[in-house]
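Example (one chain per record):
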Amino acid sequence: MSELQSFITQGVFAFMLTFVRVGTAMMILPGLGDTLVPQQVRLYIALGFAFVLFPVTQAYMPNPLPGSVLLFLLIIFEFITGMFIGTVARIMMSALDVAGMIMSMMVGLGNAQLFNPLMSSQGSLLGAFLSIAGVALLFVTNLHHLMLLGLLESYHAFPVGQLLQAQSMAEMIGQVVASSFRIGIQMSIPLIIIGTVMYIGMGVLARIMPQIQVFMLALPLQILIGFITLAVTAAAMLLFWLQEFENGLVFFLEQSF
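Predicted structure:
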């Protein structure tokens, strides 16, 4: 009877801490944590995944059970760890929004704002399109399994009860932000080249014929050429981002775990 009571007590303790880490990450992870996914659905997914995971993570839990103060600290540490993992994945997804914003500015759609479910705020038209396409590719290619694997393997890098290394976490966030901007710029290079050529041509035409309203005439052509270029290069852009996202997740797992 005492063994059964001990098992139940340890199991509830392991499930609670596992749910804190997994649930926090689930609320931020791309795809699963987007604002278009209802909060109840995210909660049920987190509960189900934590229920499946806690028999495995129970081996990483401190034994015997800590006191009230230590338990409160453990919950805070688990919350921070889950938020860190989810934030890293979310920042890597933001490369799509960066690329969309740059491309929108280059084709004359910088003022066309639309709600971006990835960023949960107003964003560029092309950024919202790329974000939705990127999330669809994540699930089609099963890359969300790699994110869920990272949650399980995080117990090796961030053991329960160990003090968090704030400096290492801040450096990792900085590297991911820099990589996200680099990927966004690389994705938008075709439209940057097309837009630059268009602006140079409009500037030359304005100097040659000042009486012509160059921007009024060239803006529709600029948007048309931009959409044609995007239609031709969109598949290559998304495949490039998908490869970089996978490499980033693998690098994060290797560096952390």
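Caption: Residues 2-256 form one domain.
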